[in-house]
Amino acid sequence: MHPDVEKILIGPEALQARVAELGRQISRDYEGRHPTLLGILKGSVVFLGDLLRAVTLDCSVDFISVSSYAGRTSTGEVRMLLDLRESALGKDLLIVEDIMDSGLTLHYLLTTLKARNPKSLEVCTLLDKPDCRKVSVSAKYVGFRIANEFVIGYGLDHNEKYRNLPYVGVLKSGK
């Protein structure tokens, strides 16, 4: 375990098992369609890579980058840093997010993308922290519901560190 981790919340085996389940569910739900998995940079990259391998149908991948955090706290302001490469018009979009907490980023993305008239728009999140919501958002696919703790690993960071940890852990206070 990394010395900055207070405890491991979700181990590698549990992550891989749940991602495989999500891949099967998405493959069933989108059977006969060609969804675009829309990864939210940078936090979703590890989850997206594993999820993509677990989905058994043809799909596309695109990325979008937004920012609303400074250190451990949300700034409350969402900024678009990187937009889609292609039009969303008429596509089945599945937003792949690392964590839903305040909901501000996801609410911004859903509003922005809905205005572009996709055929469908759903959300798949690895982690859901419902106790942190400031706006009402939900995901069709949820990996794990967790308590209000600051988590790192498996793509999640703190000041660009810890993304490469193979588990989701709670960051020690003061780090």
Task: Characterise the protein shown here.
With 175 residues, the chain is of the alpha/beta class. The protein has one domain (5-170): Rossmann fold. Helices cover 22% and strands 35% of the residues. The protein is built from 3 helices and 9 strands. The chain has helices at residues 12-29, 45-54, 104-114; strands spanning 5-10, 36-41, 60-70, 73-82, 92-100, 120-128, 141-145, 151-152, 168-171. The protein has a 6-stranded mixed β-sheet, with helices on both faces. Strands 1-9-8 form a 3-stranded antiparallel β-sheet, with helices on one face. Helix 2 links the parallel strand 2 (36-41) and strand 3. Helix 1 packs across helix 2. The longest helix has 18 residues, at 12-29. The mean pLDDT is 92.
Question: Secondary structure elements and their pairing?
Answer:
Blueprint: E1 5-10, H1 12-29, E2 36-41, H2 45-54, E3 60-70, E4 73-82, E5 92-100, H3 104-114, E6 120-128, E7 141-145, E8 151-152, E9 168-171
Helix pairs in contact: 1-2
Short description:
The protein has 175 residues and is an alpha/beta fold. It has helices at 12-29, 45-54, 104-114, and strands at 5-10, 36-41, 60-70, 73-82, 92-100, 120-128, 141-145, 151-152, 168-171. It has one domain: Rossmann fold, CATH 3.40.50.2020.
Keywords, please?
175 residues; alpha/beta; Rossmann fold; three-stranded antiparallel β-sheet; 3 helices
